[in-house]
Design brief:
alpha+beta, binds (3beta)-3-hydroxypregn-5-EN-20-one, about 45% helix
Length: about 425
């Protein structure tokens, strides 16, 4: 489908008239090629997102600068294409930008009001209390893996390990019941997939709303010890969140909390299995798991393209001018491979890079990922436990056969088939 954006005055910096636009493939059939094209156009280029033009920021320094620039906002009403109706609910990516009020789309003081309580609940210090529970969930999933892949069959590490782990953790944190988790995953899969017909996606969005709204009402009546209940309860002095805002934050947390960490875990495992020399350094202890995690985040940012911010004023970036009303996407996968930031070998996986690896895969500025520490904690428990339990882990398909999901915004693998121990190796 396409949503033509018409009738605009041409100009060299107009995202709707530039000629060197990179078309983003919704089915992600050649991510390497696409990232390379974007990076060649660094630090900024125009992109075509299913018929809609926007700016894509691909330079590390420029992304950092723009992410703290108050002239770029999250308020969709600042988007000219939205105001004019050129983009509407028929656009397959609408669910990424026109969402409930939540910290994800708020600006300024309103943003702080929506975000503070959640952010404070998941600081590195507060998260230490969660560590034993994450270890327990991990151990149980490793048992499931052994059961399913113990014989002479390969097992999909995504379905049995990388997916249920972050899903269980974020759901426990927010107080989402265990029974709901498989359905939620189904719904989010349909939500993100660009193969889902748009009318079905809108139904999915409706069902997610029903599920979360019921949950919030139930917890408002009977608050328990979870983050959703904490968000409902009024703070002394502070302005309480409305039901819509709690629902919005809850949706954002569950979506971001499971979708992204799956990607981190799978890309780390895949990279290590493709680089046995580096895996050896890690298992010997000469390189830390934190280096594996940070290098994976840099090279394979779970967020390929983050939609979207809108310009309220003219903003110069490189030799381009972003105009008021334009949409701006941060293309994090390209940003992580910016050679002026990471050197000529920016495309290589290398856990021995000097630390800290200064990537911005978790964003930067006021919207920097509030769950970053949780994600790092999950990966730092899951990865060593997996390799300790299955030292013979191997990819069960050639690397080139591992494909991405048809998800435009997320760097999400379709599956990661592995041998826990290859039968012929004993
Ligand atoms: C998912 C749909 C929700 O209704 C709103 C929402 C909030 C946070 C977004 C998330 C959506 C999609 C995945 C995002 C997440 C924030 C971080 C995460 C973009 C749109 C990333 C980085 O991929």
């Amino acid at each position: 489908m396409s949503c033509p954006v018409g009738h605009h005055t041409p100009g060299s910096g107009d995202p709707r008239t530039a000629t060197d636009t990179v078309t983003i493939d919704p089915l992600v059939r050649d991510l390497a090629g696409e990232t390379a094209r974007l990076r060649e156009a660094a630090p900024i280029t125009t992109i075509d997102l299913l018929g809609v033009r926007a700016w894509s920021i691909t330079g590390h320094a420029e992304a950092r600068r723009l992410l703290t620039d108050a002239r770029l906002v999250k308020d969709i009403n600042q988007w000219e294409a939205w105001r004019t109706g050129a983009v509407d609910h028929q656009w397959p990516l609408v669910g990424m930008v026109a969402v409930d009020p939540s910290m994800f789309i708020a600006d300024g003081a309103e943003h702080r009001r929506l975000r503070t309580k959640t952010a404070q609940a998941i600081t590195p210090r507060r998260l230490e209390a969660l560590r034993p529970r994450i270890e327990e969930i991990t151990a149980a999933l490793l048992d499931d893996l052994a059961e399913q892949g113990g014989g002479s069959v390969p097992v999909d590490l995504k379905a049995v390990f990388a997916l249920p782990l972050p899903m269980a953790v974020v759901c426990e944190l927010m107080g989402v019941s265990r029974e709901l988790q498989p359905r939620l995953h189904e719904l989010y899969k349909l939500f993100f997939s660009m193969l889902t017909p748009q009318d079905e996606r809108l139904q999915v969005i409706g069902e997610l709303d029903t599920i979360f709204r019921e949950m919030v009402r139930e917890k408002a009546a009977h608050p328990v010890d979870d983050l959703t209940s904490a968000l409902i309860l009024a703070d002394e002095g502070g302005e309480p969140l409305t039901e819509d805002e709690v629902v919005g934050n809850l949706k954002a947390m569950v979506a971001a909390g499971h979708e992204t960490t799956i990607s981190l875990i799978l890309h780390a495992v895949r990279a290590l299995l493709n680089h046995p020399d580096q895996l050896k350094l890690v298992l010997e202890g000469s390189v830390g798991w934190d280096s594996v995690i940070e290098e994976t985040l840099r090279l394979e940012s779970p967020s390929t393209h983050l939609l979207m911010r809108f310009a309220t004023e003219e903003i110069e970036v490189g030799d381009q001018v972003i105009r008021p009303g334009d949409g701006v996407v941060i293309s994090y996968r390209a940003v992580g491979r910016d050679r002026s930031q990471h050197g000529p070998d920016a495309d290589a996986f290398d856990v021995t890079r000097p630390t800290p690896i200064r990537h911005i895969a978790f964003g930067h500025g006021p919207h920097i990922c509030p769950g970053a520490a949780l994600s790092r904690l999950e990966a730092s428990i899951a990865l060593p436990a997996l390799f300790a339990r299955f030292p013979g882990l191997e990819l069960a398909v050639p690397n080139e056969e591992i494909s991405n999901m048809p998800v435009l915004t997320q760097n999400d693998l379709a599956a990661l088939p592995v041998w826990l121990a290859r039968p012929d190796h004993g």
